[in-house]
Specification:
This protein has 246 residues and is mainly alpha-helical. A hairpin with a 4-residue loop joins β1 and β2. The chain has helices at residues 6-9, 38-44, 56-63, 67-84, 89-108, 115-133, 145-163, 170-189, 197-205; strands at residues 27-29, 34-36, 207-208, 227-228. The strands form two sheets. A two-stranded antiparallel sheet has the order 1-2. Strands 3-4 form a two-stranded antiparallel sheet. The protein is elongated.
């Protein structure tokens, strides 16, 4: 009897995912021209991976979202609406300047800010704007050092706009930051136990653009901080940051 080669007798081991190095590579990714794991496909889709609309995995996810994912999207939608309802264009612009800056602090600050820090930072920025509306220039400071650093990071885009000659939006800044303060406060009263759950919510509804809205050309990493709706759809007739409803 002729012995079979050892390689034929043993089951073939599945290769590791080239993206994360940990999961089993079993999904062909047309955007990367690689076989990746299901976790990377699901979590990096349209966020870090510029998926073509013809991708079968993308089509399947849109047609049949997991029940847990669908429930999460429905919950997120109920939180986005009261956050932006009634704000004028200036207030919306302030949100789109400050909230992405706050989310970015989760990966750059040590220790990272928590929801309580976001609430304090928004309250301080709102108070500073309200004081300026009365003709007094006074920078209100949050109670904690982490919240103070977060407030400075959130106000940086507004300062850059002022330096560029954009009219200062004190009333809009006050309205937008009070809205954030109340939204975080209400979120924490809802019984959510994770101390950074609102930051996680913001991370889900604020997504980086992967392509230029006018040309459709891919953007280099870090080239443009503006946002795009979930699912990769471009905002119709508009260019710039957007909070989206999943």
């Amino acid at each position: 009897m002729i012995d079979e080669p050892a390689s034929l007798c043993q089951p073939r081991r599945m290769a590791s995912c080239p993206v994360c190095g940990g999961g089993k590579a079993k999904r062909q990714c047309p955007a990367l021209s690689k076989v990746i794991c299901a976790t990377c496909c699901g979590t990096k889709r349209l966020v870090e991976i510029d998926c073509p609309p013809t991708c079968g995995w993308l089509k399947a996810a849109r047609a049949h979202p997991h029940a847990a994912q669908q429930r999460q999207q429905e919950q997120d939608a109920t939180r986005v609406v009261p956050l932006i309802r009634g704000l004028d264009d200036g207030g919306y612009a302030v949100l789109m300047a400050c909230l992405p800056a706050a989310v970015a602090c989760r990966t750059t600050m040590d220790p990272p800010p928590l929801d309580a820090d976001l609430q304090l930072a928004a309250a301080a920025l709102a108070a500073t704007a309200e004081t300026a509306m009365r003709g007094v220039l006074y920078e209100h400071q949050p109670e904690t050092p982490v919240a103070a650093r977060l407030a400075r990071a959130m106000s940086a885009p507004l300062a850059e706009a002022a330096e560029a000659g954009v009219k200062r939006l004190d009333a809009s800044t006050a309205a937008a930051m009070r809205r954030v303060e109340e939204a975080v406060k209400e979120f924490r009263r809802s019984g959510v136990t994770a101390p950074d759950a609102y930051f996680a919510f913001l991370g889900r509804v604020l997504k980086p653009r992967l392509a230029d809205a006018q040309t459709g050309q891919p953007l280099a990493p870090g080239a443009d901080p503006r946002l795009t709706p979930l699912g990769g759809a471009e905002a119709s007739g508009a260019d710039g940051p957007r909070i989206i409803i999943p």
